[in-house]
Design brief:
Helix content is about 30%, strand content about 25%.
Length: about 325
């Protein structure tokens, strides 16, 4: 009887240790995930006055300050107040160059502050100039269109229709290259769904390749900023979810938490080829619907909602929604 009691007591101790170990393991995992999530970046664009070499504000012929849109990363100071820190061309924060933001609501998920001063809500930026024509007998989009960045816009759905228009040859080639990001066909999404991770990881690799660098390790901020430029919204928790998504989607990118970098082992070869068949103006803040035929993969057609903007000066567009079939 004594032996049985001792054995039962030993079993209770073992079971307790197992549960404690599991509990600690789960706690560690939660802490790690939370830490990574807190490391994710939110990017956007803010209005900044243009200054000359003496630091004086440049004014127009009417004496009004000349402004421009600058890429920023949103941060929080020790008092919990949000502010925007200006980024350089490589996506790195510029020390001492900050912009105050009037953010009553931090719920916006597209990288733009959701509540700005009224004058900032009306800020616009010029669309890229068109440099050629095609033979299609429809109107060519004008180059003086404007795109607002106020964080409150409603992005059209892939089922919406509009008036058929024409883009320049240069613009069509840019859109074609964006839709030919390797393995972009792995997921469809409407803008309100957020960007699927299985295509975000491949897009990150493609954007890094466009930078023309042959290195394998990239600072985290430029990679996440590039994704914001391509999709026109922040890819939520990209650093947190990158490694799992990359393994699942066979993308050659990994996030290294210890030094806050991304490692890209190689660039991915082209897979799908697209041929644009129709472009429709959706009549709302430079949103367009692009329909294209697809070859080289298990899809035959793609519908994309794009926005003409200058989040990336060399692209001039963002992919806002995709439907592959």
């Amino acid at each position: 009887m004594k032996k049985i009691f001792i054995l039962l007591l030993a079993l209770v101790v073992v079971v307790s240790c197992v549960f404690a170990a599991c509990s600690n393991s789960e706690s560690d995992n939660e802490t790690t995930a939370a830490g990574l999530e807190n490391n994710d970046n939110e990017f956007g664009f803010e209005t900044q006055e243009v200054t000359d070499e003496n630091g004086e504000t440049v004014t127009d012929e009417n004496g009004n300050p000349v402004t421009t849109q600058v890429a920023v990363i949103y941060k929080t100071d020790k008092n919990g107040k949000r502010y925007a820190q200006v980024l350089d061309a490589d996506g790195n924060p510029i020390e001492g160059e900050t912009i105050a933001v009037n953010d009553q609501d931090d719920s916006g998920s597209n990288g733009n502050s959701s509540n700005r001063e009224e004058e900032e809500n009306n800020t616009t930026t010029s669309a890229p100039e068109t440099t050629g024509t095609t033979k299609k007998n429809v109107s060519l989009t004008e180059s003086d269109g404007t795109t607002e960045f106020n964080g409150n816009e409603t992005v059209p759905k892939t089922s919406d229709t509009g008036t058929e228009v024409n883009f320049s040859v240069e613009d069509q080639n840019i859109i074609k290259s964006m839709l030919e990001v390797p393995y972009l066909y792995l997921a469809s999404y409407e803008n309100s769904d957020g960007v699927p991770m299985e295509i975000a990881v491949h897009t990150a690799v493609w954007m890094a390749e466009r930078d023309g660098s042959s290195r394998n390790t990239y600072p985290a901020s430029p990679v996440v900023l590039n994704l914001f430029k391509y999709y026109g919204q922040t890819v939520i928790n990209f650093k947190t979810l990158c490694n799992k998504a990359a393994d699942s989607a066979d993308a050659p990118i990994q996030y290294i938490k210890s030094n806050d970098t991304f490692e890209i082992s190689n660039y991915t070869s082209k897979v799908q080829t697209v041929s644009i068949t129709k472009i429709e103006d959706l009549g709302n803040n430079n949103f367009y619907k692009v329909t294209a035929s697809v070859s080289g993969c298990n899809k035959k057609r793609v519908v994309a909602i794009i926005q003409k903007n200058r989040l990336d000066s060399s692209l001039g567009f963002s992919i806002k929604a995709l439907k592959w079939s």
